[in-house]
Amino acid sequence: MACFLAPVSLAILTTSFRKRFPAKWHISWLNTMIWGGAVALAVEHIAHQEIVPWPPFLTAMSSPADTMLMLGEMAAVGIPMMLSLIFAWLVIVVVYEKLFLAVQSGTEEHRA
Length: 112
Description:
By secondary structure, this protein is mostly helical. It has one domain (about 5-110). Helices cover about 70% and strands about 0% of the residues. The chain has helices at about 5-15, 25-45, 65-110. Helix 1 (about 5-15) runs antiparallel to helix 2. The longest helix is centred in the C-terminal third of the chain and has 48 residues, at about 65-110.
């Protein structure tokens, strides 16, 4: 339904404020992960006709009961999906900072 809206809201925030994050956080990596997943999910939702080109655009918003179901799905699926993306990004950044840069600086010391 609309589970991709939770990660998209984070992507909008991190993209808007990307210059305020330290370079070592590699926020562009998180943005790439979130936007890529959001586009893929949007295409899937369009293919299943859950997103339509006429208002209210989300078929889950056609009735109040469906809207409540959609909000429940956003909480049950969208938020855990967003948290999983953040966790995967954190792991990637930590591994990069600790292992890759440590190996790279060790190689430079051997050259000197």
